[in-house]
Every structure is written in structure tokens, then in C-alpha cells.
Amino acid sequence: MSGALDGVVAAVTGASSGIGEATARALAAEGATLALLARRRDRLESLAGELGTATTVHEVDVSDADAVAGSIDEVVARHGRLDVLVNNAGYGTMTPAAEADLAEWRTMVDVNVNGVLATTHAALRHLTTAAAGDRGVADVVTISSVAGRKVANPAVNVYAATKHAVGAFSEALRQEFAAQHVRIGLVEPGLVRSELTAANGALGEVGELGVMEATDIAEAVIYMVTRPRRVAVNEILVRPIEQTR
């Protein structure tokens, strides 16, 4: 049975776990050929083994701009094109500013902002080429956060700042590349079961109906990239039903 993304090549950063892994699986289920990017090669290779021989693994830290550019070029060299980029790699700690470690702040900026900038910059020329081809459109989807819309509590300080930044960057890209048919999407999840939320103790806020799963966010990404080429879904905010902040 054919999928909505047959013939499409998609690169996913942070693909070794959580939302990135779930998104890679969802894209593959729709027929896309996958390039998996992350630091943990063993996890990428395990996932690639499940997704099929066409899937490629690219061990890279998104905060290293030169390495990212090399990985994106390698994706295109291996697969011949790049139609979809999912910027999912992220890092977050949530500590009041007076108690924070400045190195942690720098890491959040390096991964959440500079990583998105480096990966998107490396991919844009390939995406515009793909959009001019048979599919007629290309996609950049960045996984942000509800923290990119509001500061729910003081401890999210720099994490929220990074997510506000990628929101502004995405809007600028949307305006710049609309005429070239490169769609720019931002997915802003609320509380999702993940390594990040577990590490920050956020799962203690779970209500009766629970939190979202990574697959819920993957479905939002799939919705964005499978719309008819005349349609651009630029922003999806999705929370657990009981989350109020």
C-alpha cells in the first residue's frame, strides 16, 4: 500500500529517542526514506534496522555547525534529495536563575537555537531544489514548546527564551520562503513523556488523563507535511487536555 510520502526524503534530528524517534517511525510509515541524525549512534542504528535498509544513520551533534553541514550534504549525496527537515534535537534544564549553572544555559542556546540555525541553514538550498521538483513543495518542521508562547514559571527562563527564539526564526523563514514553496512549521507541545521531562521532574504534574506521548507529537508533524501543496500549516500548539499552563 502506498503512503502519502512515497519518494520523499526526510531528515530528523534528535532521532535517537522520544519525539524524534516517534517522528521517524511515523514518516517511514507514510513511505518516506529516512536520514536519522543524533549523537547516539547505537540507538540510531537500532532504529534504522527496524525502518529498513534505505534508512541512513548520521552521528552528529547539532551544536557543531560544520559537522551538521557535512551530515546534511551526506544525506543528499546518499539519497539524491532532501524534501523534509524535522528539527527535533533539544536540551533543557529548569532551574531558577539564582541557582543556575551558566554552562547549562549555554548548552541550551547551543542546541535549541544554534542547532536549529545550523541544520536549517545547511538544508535550505537542498529544500528549495526539492520544492522546485516533482513534489512541488518542501518542509521544515521545528519542534518547539508551549514555553515558546508563554513563561509558565520562572524556572523555565532560558529554555523558554530559546523556544521563543526559534518561533521568531521560523516566522521569518515562512515569510522569506513562501514564494519558493518551502513550508515552515512549528509544533509546540505541552507536557510529553520524554527523557527531558523525566529529567526535570515535570512528570510529577501528571493529571488523571496523563501526559501526551511522543507519538502524539509525531502525528502533528505528519499532518503538517502531508497537506496538499497549496496548504501550509505553520503552527500547531498541542497540550494534554488537563494541562492549564
Give the helices and strands, then pairings.
Elements: E1 9-13, H1 18-29, E2 33-38, H2 41-51, E3 56-59, H3 65-79, E4 84-87, H4 102-131, E5 138-143, H5 157-177, E6 182-189, H6 195-199, H7 214-225, E7 235-238
Helix pairs in contact: 1-7, 3-4, 4-5
Textual characterization of the structure:
- The chain contains 7 helices and 7 strands; from the N terminus they run βαβαβαβαβαβααβ.
- With 245 residues, it is of the alpha/beta class.
- The chain has one domain: Rossmann fold.
- The longest helix has 30 residues, at 102-131.
- The model has no long low-confidence stretch (mean pLDDT 94).
Number of alpha- plus pi-helical segments: 7
CATH topology label? Rossmann fold
User: Approximately what portion of the residues adopt beta-strand conformation?
Assistant: 15-25%
Total beta strand runs: 7
**Rg over CA atoms:** 17 Å
Keywords:
245 residues; alpha/beta
